[in-house]
Design a protein that fits this description.
Blueprint (H helix, E strand, L loop, with lengths): L1 H9 L2 E4 L8 H7 L5 E4 L2 E4 L10 E4 L6 E4 L4 E2 L4 E7 L5 E5 L5 E8 L4 E6 L4 E8 L4 E7 L3 E3 L2 E3 L4 E5 L4 E8 L3 E5 L5 E8 L4 E5 L3 E9 L3 E5 L4 E5 L1 E4 L2 E4 L3 E5 L27
Parallel strand pairs: 1-2, 2-4, 3-5, 4-7, 5-7, 6-8, 7-9, 8-10, 9-11, 10-12, 11-13, 11-14, 12-15, 13-16, 14-16, 15-17, 16-18, 17-19, 18-20, 19-21, 20-22, 20-23, 21-24, 22-25
């Protein structure tokens, strides 16, 4: 208990802003120790902060609408948390996770030239992240075991969410793009989502998967499969969207005639994507 109190007492808060002790996030990171909090005031920060090797809470004081980071390279995070920023990335990938268990929360990523967030390892939590106008994919889970929930892809050039690993995906929204969700892993869990206006198909499945409580609108197909793939979709609704294409086996239980409940928020209220847009 004594050791715990000493550790808690030693944690510091370093403030960043034009009139603060630190005028850049990078300078505050360099001065901080694991367990510290870096509190960033409103403004635009043209830098590529690198918090790797330290477990820090890096958070904006007033949220993503007033606090912007313009980075010239990928920002890698391997611990602690990164919360409450808008990113204008001048690089192909805005944020990368290669290891550790960081939390990425309440972020807006505007116009990455290729990818919004790429997870290649670790067990990160991605929550309440909006990626708009990605040059390729908004979210890529290609390694590790990430938890992705309450995230939004808006108008990605290719795919909203790609899952190549044993990720857990829940309560997501994809608008536009060629496919809303692409599954390449038999170990993925994908529950509760909405896909609107995907031009090639709502879901592309290259691995067996169950998609529970999904809603689809204005896409050619609910799911398009690779050969020998089985897709199961219990409880969903589809508007102006055909059922399935090229699947070895497809089970569509209650699709088109049931009202899916998204119980992450409430067991008695329907899903409303606008409820979880960052800053809403």
């Amino acid at each position: 208990m004594l050791l715990h109190l000493v550790a808690a007492a030693s944690a510091a808060t370093l403030e960043v802003g034009p009139a603060e002790a630190y005028t850049t996030i990078s300078a505050a990171i360099a001065a901080a120790s694991s367990g510290d909090t870096i509190l960033v005031g409103p403004g635009t920060y043209t830098e590529t902060p690198d918090p790797r090797g330290k477990s820090l809470t890096i958070t904006s004081r007033d949220g993503p609408h007033t606090t912007r980071i313009v980075a010239s390279d990928t920002i890698y995070v391997d611990g602690g948390s990164l919360e409450g920023f808008t990113f204008d990335p001048a690089y192909s990938t805005a944020i990368g996770v290669q290891s550790g268990s960081p939390t990425l929360r309440e972020l807006v990523i505007a116009g990455p030239s290729t990818y919004g967030v790429v997870v290649s390892g670790g067990t990160p939590l991605l929550e309440e992240i909006l990626v708009s106008d990605a040059g390729s994919y908004s979210f890529v889970a290609k390694g590790g075991s990430p938890l992705i929930r309450r995230c939004v892809s808006l108008d990605a050039a290719t795919w909203g969410f790609q899952v190549i690993t044993s990720a857990s995906v829940a309560n997501i929204l994809s608008i536009g793009g060629k496919y809303g969700l692409v599954i390449n892993s038999n170990g993925a869990t994908v529950n509760n989502g909405v896909v609107v206006g995907a031009t090639s198909g709502a879901i592309a499945a290259a691995a067996n998967a169950t998609f529970t409580n999904w809603a689809f609108r204005d896409s050619p197909y609910v799911v398009q499969c690779s050969a020998s793939v089985t897709a199961t979709l219990p409880n969903g609704v589809a508007f102006n969207t055909l059922a399935a294409k090229d699947c070895a086996s497809t089970t569509l239980d209650n699709v088109d005639n049931a009202d899916p409940l998204f119980s992450y928020w409430s067991s008695s209220a329907d899903f409303n994507a606008l409820d979880f847009a960052p800053g809403a």
